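Input:
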Amino acid sequence: MNCDAYRDLMMMHFDGNINDVDFARLKQHMNACASCKSEFMQLESILNSLEEGEIAEPPSDFESQVMTRIKTLEQNKNRNIEALIYGIPILIIISLPAILLFRFSGSRILDMAINAFEYLLPYPGASDVINKIVALLSILASRMEKTMIQLGMGFIKANQEIIIGLIAVLFVVEWMFVALVKRSWRRAAE
Amino acid sequence: MEVSDLELVQQCLSGDSDAFSEIVARYKKLIYSVVYNMMPDKQEVNDIAQEVFIRIYKSLGRYNPEYKFSTWSVRIATNLCLDMLRKKKINSVPIEEIGDTSSSTDTPEANYIKNERSRQIRKAIEELPEKYRVPIILFHQNGLSYEEITKVLNEPMTIVKNRLYRARLMLREKLSSIREEEVL
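Output:
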């Protein structure tokens, strides 16, 4: 056996996983080989002082510190859900009239707006819901007087740009509102 | 009868966040000492140990009962510590206060030498590359078994063994070169 092989035995010793026979062989080799012996002594001293190292004790109120942080976390989570619950209906209520108007004007912009919704809203599937509501409302609306619709159409077509602008502003304002409310809740919780 | 870890996890998941308090009580010592051994700046230990439990809480849904809860939580702890260390690698390591390992029976000189020695060893460990540092801390300082370390690191036994062997030799090399400098 050469020194490399004895070094494996050494490692097994420091693993705490060596049998008596191998340990006796290792000791015998170290009596003859000064470099292995010094390596062993150095390793033993290093690893012993590592294992002796002080034991770190958590402070006695550690649980309550952690639990306080977790309660805050849970509250924030609930508040975020609340923000969604309040925020989404408000968004829809504000945007619906505008969306409806566009459906009747036959403009493609409606589809774009609904697609944009998908990116704005924090949960998927929202645009499907909106589409269904719009479809339902348009069935209702189609039963209304034709003349009223035509009058409305004329108005929309004449003022298309202004209405687009208004919707865009509404979107932004509402979104900022929701974001602000969420942030102030979070601050209050901290 | 004692509630099992898995039952506690399930209670937490079903909305009883107080069950988590029991989990913290069971594993705070283990997590705290792993974080303590991993982080050179001892002032951060409490914060990071808390953060580990927050992470555990958030990932309870992903707990796999095939693992022991202790192994799984140590894994989260070491990952968080490594993340923190990587983030502030640029900042230098603060010089540590000497004297925290002293015992009253030793003479001041013996104390000083002992502290100086353990400071050097800690520093040498901090300088080891991550993949060698983590096994040596977990095995020699936290007393984890090979079996547990393979699960924490998600590496096969042969690799863990090799790294631990290499790490010991690297430590010895580093520390013996320090000693030579001191003699000269």
